[in-house]
Amino acid sequence: AQSVTQLGSHVSVSEGALVLLRCNYSSSVPPYLFWYVQYPNQGLQLLLKYTSAATLVKGINGFEAEFKKSETSFHLTKPSAHMSDAAEYFCAVSTVGGYNKLIFGAGTRLAVHP
Amino acid sequence: EAQVTQNPRYLITVTGKKLTVTCSQNMNHEYMSWYRQDPGLGLRQIYYSMNVEVTDKGDVPEGYKVSRKEKRNFPLILESPSPNQTSLYFCASSFQGPDTQYFGPGTRLTVL
């Protein structure tokens, strides 16, 4: 069975600091991995996705994530946080050949302070 | 504009009063899905549909029904809502396969 674990339900950083949101997955078959962002009172928006091509994936708003099979991780990073990055972030896994079911982590709420 | 729409956005109801939350997409997607979001639990899938007239249970289907009579619409039905169904609900759609899912704006449901 697939699962996703996001370490840290709340992360707080200073504006301009590195953002690191952790995601570990469990999957018995090659996974597809996603990061979604949810701004207050809005739906989820795709940040980036890994689909077995390059292991370093670049997304929108300066975010990127690296797929590490040996560590079963897909951590999300951004070199310099901006106030507008404050949101909740969800990591999700799906499987190749599956029926497009997404398994979500519990989410990490990112706070950015001046 | 490509989008997934849900109605209503907010709903307060009482236990046992049947309700329907509508979902519509204009991207000709085959796959549609309903999720509920609860604090600390992330999003959990309720039902999904691979195409017209093809639906199946997700992880938390109890107390919910769906139908897919048209490709663009995928309503969520609560025949007899209970307080434990108070939650934030999202509809999503995509093409087949592990592709990007597009989410609606959410429906916040409160059952008293």
Characterize this entry briefly.
Helices cover 0% and strands 56% of the residues of chain A.
**Percent of residues of chain A in beta strands?**
over 45%
- Ends apart, CA distance between termini of chain A: 41 Å
Helix-strand category of chain A: mainly beta
Distance between the termini of chain B: 36 Å
Residue share in helix of chain B: under 10%
Percent of residues in beta strands of chain B: over 45%
Question: Biggest interface and which pair forms it?
Answer: A-B, 26 and 26 residues
Instruction: Compute the number of helices of chain B.
Output: 0
Mean pLDDT of chain A: 91
- Count of DSSP strands of chain B: 11
Structural class of chain B: mainly beta
Mean pLDDT of chain B comes to 93
User: What pattern of helices and strands is seen along the backbone of chain B?
Assistant: EEEEEEEEEEE
Task: Using the CA coordinates, give the radius of gyration of chain B.
Answer: 13 Å
Largest sheet of chain A: 6 strands, mixed
Structural features:
heterodimer; A: 114 residues; mainly beta; six-stranded mixed beta sheet; five-stranded antiparallel beta sheet; 11 strands; B: 112 residues; four-stranded antiparallel beta sheet; 0% helix
